[in-house]
Amino acid sequence: GFADKKQFTTYLKDYMKKLIYIEHGFRELYRGLVPILWRNGPSNAMFFVMREEADQRLPKRATAVTQRTQEFIAGACIGAFISSVFYPINVIKVTMQSKLGGPNDSMWVALQQVYNERDRKLRNVYKGVSMNCTRAFFSWGIMNSAYEQLKKVFY
């Protein structure tokens, strides 16, 4: 066994470094990078465009609490929507990253694999989207609220 959590953490880091970097090479650390870029680039751009649109169209609230609540809800809804739209790309990324070693498959190959594994139905590619939507709702709501507060501090 391990004497403490720190010893275990050190062992785990060393083991993972050996397993991934040494045995499979530097490129293994970047497996799934392309779908991450395809997901994060457009989705972040969409978020900020939609967030600015919501900020312009929604009325300014009288109290700080109602304004923060509105900022949270607007960010949460926009984030949950965008995260759901881009969910299949996230599924592709997870599929690509779940394979350790060997050739890096393209996004198209990974999508075909997911599609075939999920009974060849596009609807099944979205399995798990409700949990993802719930996670995105809270995380994007918090991020949008924090962003609005930081804007006031720095601008």
TrEMBL record:
It is a multi-pass membrane protein. Solcar repeats lie at residues 1-57, 66-153. Keywords: Membrane, Mitochondrion, Mitochondrion inner membrane, Repeat, Transmembrane, Transmembrane helix, Transport. It is found in: Mitochondrion inner membrane. InterPro entries: MCP_dom_sf, MCP_transmembrane, Mito_NAD+_Carrier. Its main location: mitochondrion. GO terms for cellular component: mitochondrial inner membrane. GO terms for molecular function: NAD transmembrane transporter activity. Belongs to the mitochondrial carrier (TC 2.A.29) family. PANTHER family: SD08549P. This is Putative mitochondrial carrier protein. It comes from Culex tarsalis (Encephalitis mosquito).
